[in-house]
Amino acid sequence: MSTLWKPHPGPQTTVLAINDVYETLFGGSRGGGKTDTGIVWLLKNAHNPRFRGLVIRRNAQDLSDWLDRARLLFGGASITGKPATIKFKSGAIIRTGHLKDSDAYTHFQGHEYQNIVIEELTQIPKEEDYLKLLSSCRSTVPDIPPAVLCTANPGGPGHSWVKRRFKIGIKESNKAFKDDISGRYRIYVPATINDNPTLKNADPDYVKYLDSLPEPLRSAWLFGDWEVFAGQYFDMWNPSVHILNDEKAEKLGFGQHYNSKYLGIDWGYANPFACVWIEVNSNGDVMAYRELYGTEKHPYEWGQMIYEESKLENIVMSYADPSMWIRNPMSWNNPATQMYSDTCIANALMGNGETPLVTNMVPANNSRVNGWRNLASYMSHGEKRKPKFYVKEGTCPNLVRTIPDMVRDEKNVEDIDTTLEDHIVDALRYAFTNLQAPEEPKKKIPKMMQEKIELMDGHKKRGWTYSF
Question: What residues does 191 pair with on adjacent strands?
């Protein structure tokens, strides 16, 4: 290990001492010394001529910053190329790359890297893309077990899946836990700027800067708080408030036969298809109570499934992805011959029989920004104000899972990042296109009782009173 750098007692020392753990997340506040720790972590096996390492950062600019810091610690290693390749005198090689493009992970498929460092893990929007990177982390070199070291701060498009994967707040920090499926171990090691006295002493104003930030940025960057994070679009979402069991739903007037019901549909084949059912009560409150979610089914198949779920219900209107009305030769609408026709996806989804599979389906309003603002206003609540939107408990797992994952687009903060798994949330946005609260039917009063009420009303007008 280079004498130019020595780990501080605490998280840095803990990370460098970890063995037999496949995935390590070194995360927390800004300034915790994560980047330097990752650089030195790669040096542990740089003496082996067969060692191959990989460093991944979000973009080329971030990668350049990492290389500037690595040059100080990698000694006589040569650094050439774009993206850079680092070659040690021993014959060991470390390659670098970035994930600026959605298919960037394919550049590393088929390679073997015994150790991989992924900086800013929460900047990877989808867990699936991370897992594809992990497929390159393997080892045929004796005495070098495969391992991945990730660094991250709370926030970013991948915040929620990173938090779930490493069970932050559920499992005890600094203790490895076993994945039930793969059998491999993962660990989360938290750090704050207080664990990096080098930076704290050299730049005390940086600590003051972090302390001056508005919430929730301050909690995330100064304390490494994963419970809230900057950039979350639906930051008002609270499962304990918005998810209703049967009893609470009934008290709010949901489940009545006269309530208005709507569908929202977002088309997808390789990407998920999503459909959500909502109902509106007489107060104008909305509850999502059913969903369909999946991939690789043709429009007619989804139409049949929606029909089976809705045939006993009176659906006022079905609002769907406007792109479904584009003429598309890949729409399947003939289950007998399984042939494709030149109809659009919408027609195939609705079916060609006498009984439509999806009733009253029209293109939804596709104004994203207005749609997100509308959803946020329905979710909003306070000490003396209840939300107007709810989800029925146990009925919409994908909706409940992805609502908190939605983050703002960096280039347009009024919109949601389109790289996220937003399919079921899109369907919900479509369902809200034009909602109307139903009129609660008046209770019928028996004729004799009605006559008695009218008689008493007449007496009251004359000033007569009754005592019983």
Answer: 28
Note whether 162 and 155 are within 8 A (CB).
Answer: no
Question: How far is residue 353's CA from residue 335's CA, in Å, rounded to a whole number?
Answer: 12
Which residue type is seen at 275?
C
Assess contact for 399 and 428: CB atoms under 8 A.
yes
How far is residue 390's CA from residue 263's CA, in Å, rounded to a whole number? 15
Q: Which tens digit of pLDDT belongs to each residue from 430-444? A: 999 999 888 877 766
The pTM of the whole model exceeds 0.90:
no
Q: CA torsion sign, 78 to 81 to 86 to 92? A: negative
Nearest by Cα to 345 from 365, 322, 316: 322
Residue environment code for 109-146, b if the CB has 16+ CB neighbours within 10 A, otherwise e = eeeebbbbbbbbbbbbbbeebbebbbebbebebeebeb
Query: What SS3 class is residue 105?
Result: helix
Could you tell me the two tokens for 392? 């029925």
pLDDT tens readout for residues 287-304 = 999 999 999 998 889 999
Rounded CA separation 55/115 (Å): 9
**CA–CA separation, 118 vs 133, rounded Å?**
9
Residues 6+ apart with CB under 8 A from 463: none
Cis peptide before 83 (omega within 30 of 0): yes
